[in-house]
Amino acid sequence: MHLSPDEIIFWQYGLVKLNATILYTWGLMCVLVIGSILVTRNLSMEIERTRWQNLLEIIVSGIEKQIEEVGLRQPRKYIGFLGTLFLFVATASLFTIVPGYEPPTGSLSTTAALAFCVFVAIPLFGIEASGLGEYLGDYLKPTFIMLPFNIISEFSRTLALAVRLFGNMMSGTMILAILLTITPYLLPIAMSVLGLLTGMVQAYIFSILATVYIAAATRTSKPDLASDATHAK
Amino acid sequence: MDSMTIIAVASIISAGLTIAVGSIGPALGEGRALATALTSLAQQPDASATITRTLFVGLAMVESIAIYCFVVSMILIFANPFWNHVIAQAAGK
Fold first, then answer.
1. What distance in Å separates residue A201's CA from the closest CA in chain B?
2. How far does the CA of residue A209 sit from the closest CA of chain B (Å)?
3. Partner-chain contact A174 B68, CB within 8 Å
4. Chain B residue with minimum CA distance to A201
5. Cα distance between residue A93 and residue A198, in whole Å
6. What residue segments make up the domains of chain B, in order of their start?
7. pTM here?
8. In 3-state terms, what secondary structure has residue A48?
9. Are A203 and A152 spatial neighbours (Cβ–Cβ below 8 Å)?
10. What CATH number has the domain spanning B3-92?
11. What is d(CA A109, CA A162) in angstroms, rounded to the nearest whole number?
């Protein structure tokens, strides 16, 4: 019984290892990219469209609406990053239907990498929205005594993101492995369904938390008159 | 009792206690959060999207405490560094 798919090694040459995490991550990336390329080859603008295009439109417009509801004014700027986070974590947990597959997010390396991406993206988007001086000034915002606490909270948020996703995914696979040795026939299927549900919820949570952090970092005190006008329509 | 036995006993008892005590708090907290969310949904069904989203985000933050306890307990059982060190010493002898 292994703690994470890092321990399943398919091929090794010195220090370079091909373990299950890398293999399944690249498999997911291929599925997502090639699937999207195939679907978006002949896009139609009329009512008649293929069901795959419809599916992609539902997903993209759903994510866009969620980003806007959280408070980010121009969701198209952020949907590349946030949508990818959601889709990667969601498909990583969706594919547990396939036998022999283990979600790569069940390894602390993957979730730490995703959390680090969010950690880097928050200042990038913040500085792009309000400039370097004002973004750094936000760290002193309530009083300058809060500076160490704000810095600590940046790191602890990132750590919490990584450990939350890792813990949820790892516990799903581990419960399944333990149950398979104890009561093989019906209970593992129920736990697998529960694992799917928590996987989807965790994908949503990860991307919504990233959205909330980015919204907090890009929130400026100046009222945004242009988008207020479009909202009022 | 030699050190191997002490480490094993301490790890097993700690793992059990960690997850047992560590899931009481989050469970109570999530129950309270859910009850309040249901009350406010009954009072203002129009805001159900916002309330539901905030509920899920809040539940995830509370749940992560239980997840930390679970991860510690799993590490104690499956990836225990003290146990590995003692086993390596015993194997080396």
1. 8
2. 7
3. no
4. B56
5. 9
6. 3-92
7. 0.87
8. coil
9. no
10. 1.20.20.10
11. 9
A31, containing H or E segment = helix A20-39
Task: Please name the residue of chain B whose CA is at the shortest distance from the CA of residue A198.
Answer: B60
Nearest chain B Cα distance for residue A48, angstroms? 30
State the residue for tokens 């907090």.
A216
What is the tens place of the pLDDT at every residue in A9-37?
888 888 888 999 999 999 999 999 999 99
ipTM associated with this complex: 0.79
Domain count, chain A: 1
Question: Could you tell me if A174 and B78 are in contact, meaning their C-beta atoms sit under 8 angstroms apart?
Answer: no
Q: Which residues in chain A are closer than 8 Å to B64, comparing Cβ atoms?
A: 160, 163-164, 167
CA A126 → CA A23, A156, A215, B30, B49, distances in Å?
Answer: 34, 18, 9, 32, 27
Task: Print the domain residue range for A13.
Answer: 5-232
Test A170 with B79 for CB contact under 8 angstroms: no
How far is residue A43's CA from residue B67's CA, in Å, rounded to a whole number? 43
